[in-house]
Amino acid sequence: MNLTNQDIEDLVAFRRELHRFPEISNEEKETARRVVGFLHDTGADEVLTGLGGHGVALVYDSGRPGLTILFRAELDALPIAEVSDIPHRSNVEGKGHMCGHDGHMAILAALGRLFGRQRPASGRVVLMFQPAEETGNGAAGVVADPRYAAIRPDFAFSLHNLPGTPLGHVRLRDGVVNCASRGLRITLEGRTAHSSMPESGVSPMLAVSRLMPRLAALGSGSFDSDEFSMATVTHVCMGEPVFGVAPGHAEIRVTLRTRQDARMAGLCAAAEAMVREEAEAHRLQCGFDYHEIFVASLNEPQAVAHLAAALDAEGVSHDGAELPMRASEDFGIFGHASKSAMFYLGSGVDRPNLHNPDYDFPDDLIAIGARIFMRTARNLLG
């Protein structure tokens, strides 16, 4: 089964429409509506909406016993203003598809068209358009949704476009492919004072100045080792932007990162202990909360083998270079109850990087990604 020239034309137009109207994590209501509308004519046997937020799942069922295979794309864009003169640039101020999720959705939409014309020979295919990948709560929300149990797959597959890699070349390996990470927000509370009498207050200034380098130094181990950990201070603020008040409050945000989930608890404990030590030394109260929690993403060997077989059958070059990545990806949640794997599809060596304000997903990847996924499904389901 192949996409027609008209299919490609329609899919490119759909991808560019999504690009023009980006919605960030947990706000993807209209994006979900556009997906359902575009695939309405494919006659999915079941359409689930509002999964884990604004998630959408379309089921194409053979009506015969067999495996359930899930393919996942992301609905969300980023809070990044697009800097571009392309005709389909973002129409939404301060928001843009700078990670290529619009292209991932178009690839799954291509599968919807193909399975709408001919169901798999056995089992069923689930096309999962997942919300809120960028904030780490989307996959967890989908899996926690009570309706997910009825479509829980035997195998789950996903892809991500990858600038810096030749167009159409794939990076794939088993084991860890994306790190675990979480954002730690630290608050320090003292007491404000008049700026002419700072000694009458309790300032967090010294504690902040000591904590920034100490937190950054928490990282350890080579990235090639499972013992790898990393801490990156991403934001600091203190007091009010005035001249007459010595500060009594400060906030530090730090991203904690490990290759293995098991290492994360120890890194969190070490960061919190360090903050408590500095807070006590400087007569401050401290607090902690965590955000954007991503588990490590691991590719299961059997799932990888199925993807590799599809790549070979389609003549798509692949290797395991540049993996794993330090960056995080919430697809790992699907692997907790299913055999899962993600591959990385090269979007060109000269393209801007992901999250750059001028990034645009290359339309040529739509057909390539769809071919790989379709071959994987046909190999497993017939």
Automatic annotation (TrEMBL):
Domain of life: Bacteria
SUPFAM superfamilies in the record: Bacterial exopeptidase dimerisation domain, Zn-dependent exopeptidases
Keywords: Hydrolase, Manganese, Metal-binding
Residues binding Mn(2+): C99, H101, E134, H160, H355
InterPro entries for this protein: Amidohydrolase (IPR017439), Bact_exopeptidase_dim_dom (IPR036264), Peptidase_M20 (IPR002933), Peptidase_M20_dimer (IPR011650)
Residue ranges of every copy of the Peptidase M20 dimerisation domain listed in the record: 182-281
Cofactor names: Mn(2+)
Cofactor binding summary note: The Mn(2+) ion enhances activity.
Protein name: Amidohydrolase
Organism: Aquamicrobium defluvii
Species classification: Bacteria, Pseudomonadati, Pseudomonadota, Alphaproteobacteria, Hyphomicrobiales
